[in-house]
Specification:
With 133 residues, the protein is an alpha+beta fold. The chain contains four helices and five strands. The longest helix has 12 residues. Bound molecules: tetrahydrodeoxyuridine.
Length: 133
């Protein structure tokens, strides 16, 4: 699975974005540690606050299929410069992809980050002294 194939998966998912309120269509695709790809789109709701971003859609699909470790994420929008993931998504991305490379793709160029770039001094599982079961 090449980076370009991940971009293509995100672009395809974006075609299914449900964004009648904002008109801002987003597609995201994640690559897991075994080379599997999962893609999602943003899904809005008449009760605006229930909207789910494309990044979390893709991650929830992956995790629901048994994935626990993500290596790369691509997010596709139509804006330039390419927009970065929102804060809520960054926290969810950290949970499953602390070493993940994240690339935002727009019509002109792209931007790439590490999770440390996106969410410095993050709260994570190591902060819980009760352990993860
Ligand atoms: N959105 C995403 O799907 N991902 C982002 O990184 C930023 C925002 C969605 C949420 C909402 O449907 C629309 O874009 C406008 O905020």
């Amino acid at each position: 699975m090449s980076h370009q194939e991940l971009v293509a998966a995100a672009e395809t998912a974006r075609e299914h974005a449900y964004a009648p309120y904002s008109g801002f269509l987003v597609g995201a695709a994640v690559l897991d540690d075994q080379g599997r790809v999962f893609a999602g789109a943003n899904v809005e709701n008449a009760s605006y606050g229930l909207t789910i971003c494309a990044e979390r859609s893709a991650i929830i699909l992956a995790v629901s299929a048994g994935v626990r470790r993500l290596k790369e994420m691509v997010v596709v929008t139509s804006v330039d410069p390419p927009s970065a993931p929102c804060g809520a998504c960054r926290q969810v991305m950290l949970e499953f992809g602390p070493d993940m490379r994240v690339t935002a793709v727009g019509p002109v160029g792209q931007r790439t980050w590490t999770m440390v770039n996106l969410l410095p001094d993050a709260f994570g599982r190591e902060d819980l002294n009760s352990g993860i079961k």
